[in-house]
Amino acid sequence: MANELLIIRDLHACVQGKEIIKGLNLSIHAGEVHAIMGPNGAGKSTLSAVLTGNPNYEVTSGQIIFRGKNLLEMEPEVRAREGIFLSFQYPVEIPGVSMVNFMRTAVNAKRQYEGQPALSATEFLHLMREKKKLVGMTDKMQNRAVNEGFSGGEKKKNEIFQMAMLQPALSILDETDSGLDIDALRIVSEGVNALRTPDNASIVITHYQRLLDYIVPDYVHVLADGRIVKTGDKTLALELEENGYATFE
Amino acid sequence: MAMQHLNKSQQQELVLVNPEFQDLHIVQEENSHLRLFLICIPSPNRPLAPSPNRPLAYDITVEQNGVGCSTEIYALAYGRQQDAVRIHTHVFHNACEGTSRQVLQFVLNDEAQGDFYGELKIMPHAQRVDALQTNRNLLLSDDALMRTRPQLEIYADDVKANHGATTGQLDESALFYMQQRGIGYHQARQMLIAAFMKQVLAPMSDESQKEFLFDAIDRIVH
Q: Which three-class secondary structure state does DSSP give residue A234?
């Protein structure tokens, strides 16, 4: 099929010598939202770590093709510039690095990679002002160091704000709902939905069905013991909510 | 040796960048306020230390002799190659209701060596003193070496005294987070090192001098 954004073939990966992903296959097309659900320890977060090139995880075999290129050969920053974005389950605080400096460096690194001129200070602030509205990011948040002193909800809003700034082709939302109250969940989800286009795609990793009321997936995959064991549409998530993961463990 | 005397209610901010003298002795009278910055960073035309066997060494002594003094000492040292930097502070609370705040940070690359010794003495009659000493060090290479020795001697009972010393490497999770946003590994490192160094200078009130030093830091980490 055309527009294949991401192809994962027979992926095996381990962390600290322990195999966590054990032969995973997945295909994602532009315009799609894929939910990945599963019990704790199934490999959900390992999958996001492997896709982004986290150095603590090792791919032992298999292939990942992103927009026709071998993703596994790329450094983490190159994967990001190619359009892979991870909304971290635990966004990292970076004391002393201002949000503005951080975001401007990131946006311009991507632009340079794409052969576009760097944004001027004025152009950048204009872009930032526009994207801030999407998740209700305040000036106070913008003027602080990256994630420093942010509440759990502010950190997740900041992730979606960064996603809006970088306009990735593939966003991975890793347990974005964890630690969010219902209002923050709604704001974050509306942000994600507003960023959907026919040209990009999302992987929504979640343990609970709740988030999928807001970000409606085209496909739901059950990840258990390092493999995708079942794929369905959004009704599968409801089924899992009712029956749990016991049948897959 | 350089001597300074702060008179009653005098306020002084001193910014010392690679000073020539090695010993600085400051006596504070009642309600005087001292804010001292000691910055040891290499400049292009001058190595940081004359030789590995002869470290760059500073001794800073502050005596609070009057009631209600405040002392702030901020020290920043950046060593590379075979630089050796030694900073020793001696803060004496000889009177009541004094405060002292010390933040000392070393960044050591290559085979550089750092040495911090922080003597903090609160005399028996110096009640209601609030003292804080923080030493944070960043090692950028496996061959860099940091020695740190906080020495607190507290002889009064109604006081607050805290100290902490940490020595570590760059935060790998922060590096990865920045890379995940498209920032190159080396640039991310430079940004984190510069941020760590600039933190010490944040309280400086002379904005133009602060900007000048921030630029110098950006050049050093490149």
A: helix
Domains by residue range for chain A, with CATH = 4-173+180-248 (3.40.50.300)
Give which of A150, A115, A113 is closest to A135, Cα–Cα.
Answer: A150
> Do B38 and B67 contact (CB within 8 A), yes or no?
no
Question: Coil, helix or strand for A40?
Answer: coil
Please check whether residue B130 is in contact with residue B93, taking contact to mean a CB–CB distance below 8 angstroms: no
Q: What are the strands, taking DSSP E only, across B98-175?
A: 99-108, 113-122, 130-139, 145-154, 160-168
Mean pLDDT of A84-88: 97
Measured distance CA(A154)–CA(A158) in Å, rounded: 6
User: Inter-chain contact B191–A97, Cβ cutoff 8 Å?
Assistant: yes
Could B182 and A95 be called an inter-chain contact, meaning their C-beta atoms sit closer than 8 Å? no
CA A180 centroid distance within chain: 16
Say if residues A71 and A51 touch (Cβ distance below 8 Å).
yes
CA distance B51 to chain A (A): 32
pLDDT tens, position by position, A2-30: 579 999 999 999 999 999 999 999 999 99
- Interface membership of A99 toward B (CB under 8 Å): no
pLDDT digits (tens, 9 = 90+) for B138-148: 999 999 999 99
ipTM: 0.96
